[in-house]
Amino acid sequence: MENNSKFGSWVNAKIMPPVMKFVNTKAVKALQDGMIYSLPFIIVGSIFLILSNIPIPAVAQALNDSGWAAFFSQAYTATFGVLSLWAVVGMAYVYVRNEGYEPLPAGLTSLSAFLLIQLMQTDNPLKTAMANGTGNLSAKAVTANIDKLPHALQTLVNNPVTGVFNVTWLGGQGMVGAIIVGLLTGWAYSGMLKKGWKITLPEQVPSSVAKQFTAMIPAGVILGVAMLVYAGFKTFMNTDLLQYVYTLLEMPMQGLSDSLFGAIIIGFAVSFFWFFGVHGGLIVGTIAGVFLMPNTAANAALYHAGKLSLANGAHIVTNEFYNNFINLTGSGITIGLVIFTLFAAKSTQMKTLGKIELVPAIFNINEPFLFGLPLVMNPFLAIPFFLTPVVIALTTYLVIYFGIVPPLNGVAAPWTTPAIISGFFIGGWKMAIWQACTLVISILIYFPFAKKYDQILVKQEAEKMAEEAK
């Protein structure tokens, strides 16, 4: 106990202050709260994604024949499929709101800047069709043999379609670019207002009109800079900021987060922070979510196209991997502890808290255990609290990697969705069965440690009763 107390004091003195300082910065708060604005579109879009790809062949064929599958696909594309749009507006909005200014003009300025920095073009559909046709041509083969076509046809195939937004960069692949634009817009917009860079109209002008003039100078400066950024990338590199950032930052970081090492670190980190009383889900979810949400969006796009497989680039570790496995039944995956308290505990404290925690645990909430049992700073339950999410992160990664269960399909089941039900939504019946297996793993890991802790509590309760009887 003394060693644990010393270690806990060291962590609280040396580790937690810089971590909490980082988490409470204006940028991280805007990132965390701004991303939440995309949540309704993710969940509603997930419903349309399921409807457009119902895993029952007869039903799917009927929807295709009736045309409804195309309607559902349109709805998915306009909600979940443009995830970065909601994020870039939300982050600038929250940043400026937290600074005490009218936030909506900043959100709209951020959206305009995000669209402005993109190449408004997409590959010629003829080239795409040739590469994805029913023959044996691959994209590489098409590219290598274009010069054998007549010159006029070469020009047609090679020229992109311009004057359109490429939905690819409005979705998960544009997320890191959206974060950069959203946060920089929020910072610059509020900074200019602080310095008085605004047009002030007479009091007789209606406030709704005056507010728009207040926004005009900051918006003009930000959009002017965005235009110069676009011009620079287009002129000197023949690309845009989003594609450059995706290649330079997002792909490597998605690869790191989508590794076995990444899964284990994420699983460990949540319990580590919670053990010392800091909201591990909030910290890890904010940082890891930057790269896990694009992983989810990429899997959703593959699932929507009927190409969901690791061979086609599907990700193993996604935001649903985090929400519906690493945090299943609450941080530390404490369902095993709940089962022990309900059926095997002898101490009054554990039995009472077990009854209180049962219903919240079904919906993946376990604060009654974290602070009531407690799990926070409890050396007797530290090993299963750290070990269980690591084991489940490791095994879940491996069962997907070896093809025992399919990759997660990109459907975003809310984090409060009960276990097994969420598994079915995010990966079908095989994933639901595996999720049930993870509950059993939790029970097996927690039981011996919970039994020992229960014996300690029984002894303490007996000693207390003896003292009270004197």
Automatic annotation (TrEMBL):
It is found in: Cell membrane. Pfam families: PTS_EIIC (PF02378). One of its GO terms (cellular component) is plasma membrane. Residues 11-449 form the PTS EIIC type-3 domain. InterPro entries: PTS_EIIC, PTS_EIIC_3, PTS_IIC_cello, PTS_Sugar-EIIC/EIIB. Its main location: membrane. Keywords: Cell membrane, Membrane, Sugar transport, Transmembrane, Transmembrane helix, Transport. One of its GO terms (molecular function) is protein-N(PI)-phosphohistidine-sugar phosphotransferase activity. One of its GO terms (biological process) is phosphoenolpyruvate-dependent sugar phosphotransferase system. The chain crosses the membrane at residues 36-56, 76-96, 169-192, 213-233, 253-275, 282-305, 325-345, 380-404, 424-449. It is a multi-pass membrane protein. PANTHER family: PTHR33989, PTS SYSTEM N,N'-DIACETYLCHITOBIOSE-SPECIFIC EIIC COMPONENT. The phosphoenolpyruvate-dependent sugar phosphotransferase system (PTS), a major carbohydrate active -transport system, catalyzes the phosphorylation of incoming sugar substrates concomitant with their translocation across the cell membrane. This is Permease IIC component. It comes from Lacticaseibacillus manihotivorans DSM 13343 = JCM 12514. The lineage of its organism: Bacteria, Bacillati, Bacillota, Bacilli, Lactobacillales.
